[in-house]
Design a protein that fits this description.
- With about 350 residues, the protein is α/β, with parallel strands linked by helices.
- The protein has two domains: about 190 residues, Rossmann fold (3-Layer(aba) Sandwich), CATH 3.40.50; about 160 residues, 2-Layer Sandwich (Dihydrodipicolinate Reductase, domain 2).
- It is about 40% helix and about 20% strand.
- The strands form two sheets. The protein has a seven-stranded mixed sheet with strand order 4-3-2-1-5-6-7, with helices on both faces. A five-stranded antiparallel sheet has the order 10-9-8-11-12.
- Strand 1, helix 1 and strand 2 form a beta-alpha-beta unit.
- Helix 4 packs parallel to helix 5, helix 5 packs parallel to helix 10 and helix 7 packs across helix 8.
- About 50% of the residues are buried.
- Bound molecules: nicotinamide-adenine-dinucleotide (NAD) and L-homoserine (HSE).
Length: about 350
């Protein structure tokens, strides 16, 4: 039986939920997927770091029984009060590094370094962190290719909903002209709650408590999170290499609660829409902005933390992918799907992804 040893970098909502999946469903996953998962290292800014590479690895159940804010690895055997990220990523024997620290939309750090260190150490990486992928995705993919490891990031767009794999695997032979979508769970949840009478501030607080929001929810509300997602998706489906400056961004602070409720009374729904399309000269234009959509529009009915992206193609017309856009468990599932992708790739060199990548190279 194949076993993958994991190092979890960041132990907040998402990586904790991944640890829960492994602790609670490890045996079922093993029987279904044909590989076992063992966590051998965890680092976190607040809890410190923990390493256990013998036996069954880190015993996850006792860690998960402690409230997140009270976790202190320094009290445990193999623990340290410091998040020894570089040493753990480079030196502790692990097969896969799961990176789920804060997204930094300015330069992607320190997650960018986490990904680089892992790849340079010959470890596969899966991440839900949008910063490194949006800002340095091309260079990181090339680095991973040179080191013979996988760099997977399904959870960066629409959390566990497999929009990136769907676009990569299912659109072969089609020309994609562009896409538009509701790609932020927090802002979409907030708009719905404001529509039903809550203040913006209270609605944001709810989204934070539900685990949808970024550490700084300004990124959700002002559209910077969607900006990064548009850059990632445009890279994947349009082959574009966009910088943040290429994606003008207007957020929800352009709207008042009255605007949102008045629109609803007039049969319109405000949505924070991210879009990109290919111009006739082949270049790509993209933007993020709130749009008042008529209720019959496909994106108008996308509610709460649900997201949807409508892809405009030549042979199929518009193809819409909808599903959860945020949530701890949903995003942990994206990491699991990345691990499955790594397993498929390493065990079947003729896997769909490998063949598609070879075709594109
Ligand atoms: N929660 C979601 O719905 C969701 C969905 C998709 C993508 N994401 C992305 O996944 C990542 C994690 O999200 P989350 O909800 O778990 O966030 P979170 O804030 O709950 O957890 C992040 C954890 O990372 C730790 N951390 C931050 N910087 C660190 C560092 N330098 N070294 C070690 N640990 C560090 C923090 O202490 C925290 O515990 C973020 O980048 C987020 O944008 C989240
Ligand atoms: N904060 C993000 C998480 C998913 O990327 C959202 O609300 O969509």
């Amino acid at each position: 039986m194949t076993r993958y040893d994991l190092a979890l970098i960041g132990f907040g909502g998402v990586n904790r939920a991944l640890a829960e999946l492994i602790a609670e469903r490890g045996d079922t996953l093993e029987a279904e997927l044909g590989f076992a998962l063992r966590v051998v290292a965890i680092t976190d800014l607040r809890a410190g770091s923990l390493v256990r590479t013998d036996g069954a690895g880190i015993d996850l159940a006792p860690l998960l029984a402690v409230e997140p804010g009270e976790l202190d690895f320094s009290m445990l055997a193999g623990g340290s009060p410091d998040p020894r990220n570089e040493w753990i990523i480079r030196e502790v024997p692990a097969d896969i590094v799961a990176e789920a620290t804060f997204t930094n939309p300015v330069d992607g750090e320190p997650a960018l370094s986490h990904v680089r260190w892992a790849v340079e150490a010959g470890k596969h990486v899966c991440t839900t962190n949008k910063g490194p992928v949006a800002l340095h995705g091309g260079a990181l993919k090339e680095l991973a290719r040179r080191h013979g490891v996988r760099f997977e990031f399904e959870g960066t767009v629409m959390s566990g909903t497999p929009v990136l794999r769907t676009a990569r695997r299912m659109f072969g032979g089609l020309a994609v002209h562009g896409f538009e979508g509701v790609m932020n769970g927090t802002s979409n949840y907030v708009l719905g709650r404001v529509e039903s009478g809550l203040s913006f501030a209270d609605a944001v607080a709810e989204a934070q408590a539900l685990g949808y929001a970024e550490a700084d929810p300004t990124a959700d509300i002002e559209g910077h999170d969607v900006q990064l997602k548009v850059m990632i998706l445009a890279g994947e489906v349009l082959g574009a290499d966009l910088s943040r400056a290429d994606v003008p961004c207007t957020g929800l602070s352009a709207l008042t609660a009255d605007d949102v409720r008045r629109a609803a009374a007039e049969g319109l729904r405000w949505k924070l829409v991210g879009s990109a399309s290919r111009r006739p000269d082949g270049t790509v234009e993209a933007r993020v902005a709130p749009v008042a959509l008529p209720t019959e529009h496909a994106l108008a009915g996308v509610s709460g933390p649900v997201n949807a992206v409508a892809f405009h193609t030549d042979l199929l017309g518009t193809v819409t992918v909808a599903g959860p856009g945020a949530g701890r468990v949903e995003t942990a599932y994206a990491l699991l799907s990345d691990v499955i992708g790594i397993h498929e790739h390493t065990t079947s060199p003729a896997s769909v992804d490998t063949l598609l990548e070879a075709g594109r190279a």
